[in-house]
Task: structure prediction
Amino acid sequence: MPAKRILILTNRVPYPLHDGGNMATDAMVRGYASQGWDVYLLSMNTSRHHLGKDVLAGLYKDIYRFQTVDINNEVTPAQVLQNLLFSSQPNHATRFTKPVFQQAILQAIDSFQPDVVQVESVFLSGYLPAIREATIALITLRLHNIEWQVWQRVAAAEKNLFKKWYISNLSARIRNYEKKVWQQYDVLIPITATDAQVVDEHAKHPQVITIPFGINTDTQVQQADEKWCGYHIGAMDWLPNQDAIHWFAKEVWQTVRAQNPDFEFYFAGRNMPDVFNAYNSNGLHCMGEVADAQSFISDKKILIVPLRSGGGIRVKILEAMAAGKVVISTSVGMQGIDAIDGQHYLMANTPQAFADAISIMLQDKIAAQAIAGHAKELVAASYNAPFLAGKLSGTLTALMNSR
Result:
């Protein structure tokens, strides 16, 4: 029997694996390949996240084909204003709609003849009409989060009134866009049950399959000599991460440090804005963009997740749990993870709660290790990559056979 074929479309090359979005897309590619699918990965190589030919040459050599298309997706104030005044679609969608990428999609469909076309960003939905004309393949959308919720929460935290108005307007436009395009797919694949509930409220036609991010627990190694300090790592060109670190440094850290004077916190991430260097004192350590994320993480015990906005699932939390780390997070940060406060992690939504949670971990390390152990068991049971890949592959195969 010939292998099933899937064409995966992404609005950026899923590399380096330093942030949750890239890691989740990479897990999809690896998951399908592990289930015997021929995988054709077609990615925009955007100006914002551009990778050189030398880096690209070493990626995805073990799948059917990996192809990239250079795309200029830079945002200018004039483009934003023009979109705001004259378009009903959010700027996030229009800047990823390019004729050269559509041509590459159609050529890939013609040569590859996929059974499934999977879109890895809702903002690539502008290509759906052309895809529908070119193939009878099952068309799926992977929802890494509910985009309008991300921007709604960013707006709620914004203090500048003009920015607050603009982001609120953007959130509403994205919400209308998402609700419309969800209906146009055959299958929606949300990453959390929480997101699936939102989808069910607005998209009655498509099949919905909830597939969390999967962890290969065997590859998550716990270092024996971890330091009982805090850390955070994430893409620092993502507004929710910027807001989280600003809030933690300005509003939370003084309370934490007063209660735990020797506690240290290290934060790192891709595209770290220079403004964060101002926090590099009094136990706070801005590490910028680190060359090796795993080396940065491996010797630190406590993952701090002060997110107040965002959506989807925090891949770094699952990885930390799988590696036996202790997690202290806001409720927003834990969204989509079936973990229990006090059993698998400690919840903290206020400065005092963060200070108290850190004190609990430092003063009773045996109890802290027990929480970390329970979290590791949870990930192994519910977020096992091979199991989830098999579930998705089996469901899509059944849908293909029933058409």
